[in-house]
Amino acid sequence: MTKRVLGIDIGTTAIKVIVLDAISASRMEIVKTVSLGHDLISSFPGWAEENVGVWRANLYSILSSLSSEVDLSSLVAIGLTGMTPALVCLDSELNPIRNSIQQNDMRTSSEVDYLKNLLEKDGSYFAKTGSHVNSQHILPRLLWLRAHESENYRKIKHIIGSYDYGAFLLTGNLHIESNWALESGLFSLSGEFLDDVFALSRLDKSVLPPIALPNQVVGYVTDEASKKTGIPSGVPVYAGTADHVASAYCTGARGNGDLVLKLGGAGDILLSLDHLVLDDSLFIDYYCSKKCSYVLNGCTAASGSLIKWFRNEFGGDFKELDKEAESIPAGSDGIVILPYVLGEKTPIFDPDARGVIYGLLLSHTKAHIYRAMLESVAYAFRHHVDIFKKHNIEIRNVYITNGGSTSPLWRQIMADVLGCQVNYIRTNPGSCLGAAFIAGIANGVWTEDVISDFTKQREISYPDVANKESYDNAYYIYRQLYPRLFDLFHKNM
Prior knowledge:
Layout: E1 4-10, E2 14-24, E3 27-37, E4 49-50, H1 52-69, E5 75-82, E6 88-90, E7 100-101, H2 109-119, H3 124-129, H4 138-148, H5 150-155, E8 158-160, H6 162-171, E9 176-177, H7 178-183, H8 195-198, E10 211-212, E11 217-220, H9 223-229, E12 236-242, H10 243-249, E13 259-263, E14 267-273, E15 283-286, E16 294-300, H11 304-314, H12 318-326, E17 336-338, E18 356-358, H13 366-390, E19 398-401, H14 408-418, E20 422-425, H15 431-443, H16 449-454, E21 458-461, H17 468-489
Parallel strand pairs: 1-5, 5-12, 9-10, 13-19, 19-20
Antiparallel strand pairs: 1-2, 2-3, 4-7, 6-8, 11-12, 13-14, 14-16, 15-16, 17-18, 20-21
Helix pairs in contact: 2-4, 10-15, 11-13, 12-13, 13-14
C-alpha cells in the first residue's frame, strides 16, 4: 500500500490541508488539498487576533471531512506549519485564555520602545538573538497583556504558537518549534533561553514548553483526536516550521543564494544561506535544507491584503483588474505607491508609516492605481534585495509562490523590477506542501530529491529590458518618499 503524508497549515485566513502519496523515494503525488477559512479579528486599530476555539473546531472539522473522502489508513506522518510567532496563551486546564495575538499585531509600540531602551543599550541583545526588539516579539505582547488584561495574564500557564497548538490538539503534547522560539526574541541564536529578558514578564519560565526541531516527532495522534478527526491513532506528528520557511522549502530553494518571493497577505522575501548573516533591518530564521541552515528574510506588512482591499473597495475581480492593468505602461504613468497601509515591518520597522499615492493626475484611471499597487510590492522587495547585496551575497535562483503568484502580470512586474528571471511552480499549493515535505523526509518516506522532481514543471518570467529605465526611475522615487515623509508620519504620534 502506498504511504501517505499529511501537511497542515494553520494560516492567517484559513486552515489548509494537503495529502501526498509517496510514489518512490524521489517522487510524490498530490492526492487532495482542502481548506476552511477563518477570520482575522481587528477590534481596534493595529490589532490582529484570531479565535483559537475556531482553529480547534475548524481543524477537527476539516480533518473529519477529509478522512471521510480519502483513505488515510496508510498515513505515516503529519507535518504542521503556520504563522510565526503567534501568541497562544493556555490556562492550567490547557484551554485558550483569549484570542491569539498574531505576529502582525501592532498594538505594542509603547512596550517595544520601553524594551528597546532597556535591552539594546550595548548591542548585546541583537548579537544574541539576531534581531532588535520589535512588535513580532513575544515579550512586548506579554507586557501589554499584563498592563491591560491582568486577570487573563494571571491565568497563563503555557505559551505556544499557532501550529504548535495544532500539534497539541492531535497529540496532547506541548512544545514550541525552533523558529517560533527564535522569532519570539526570548532565545538566543544557539537556542539558549534568555532568563534575564523573560524575567521582565514576571512569569515563571515553565510557561514555555520544550523546543522542537522541524523534523522532530512531538507526539502521536491520540485516540481522542482520532475519534474527532478520523485520523488513525498512533500516526507520528512532526513539529514542522514557520509558514514562510515551509513555503520557501517547497519551491526548490535549497542552495546558498536562492531567493523566494512569497505573495501572501503579507509579502515575504527569503534568502537561503549556508552560513549565518545578520542584518539589523531584517529577520533571521533557521532553514530545513541539508545545504542551507538559515534564511535571511524580510516582510512587507501589506502585499495581497493591499490588493484585496482595493478589489473589495473599488470592485472587479483579480483577473479583470490584471487585464485592465496590462494596458498601463511600466511605472504606471508616474504613480508611485508606498504600500505601508499596515505600517511597515522590514526594513524600516515603523508601525506609524502610512500608505501614500504619489503622482496622481486626473488622467489616471483605476487601472493605473491597481498596477501601481502591484509595482509597490515589487519595489518593497527590491529594497530588501539592495540590502542582501550589501552583504556580497550572489542571488542565484529566484522563485515566487503563494496566492499572488498566480497573477502572470504580477510575476512579470517582479521580474522587471528586480531585473532577474522569476520561477513559478504552477502546482505549488504553498506552506502546507512544505510541512508535508518536511514530515515525509524526516519519516524516511522520501528524500529531499522529491522537491526537485516536484519543481521541474515551472513557468519562467524573464525581465523585459525595455521597462528597466521606467522602473529604475520609479524605484528612485519610492526610496525617496519614506525618508521625506518621516516627520509627517510621526507628527503628534
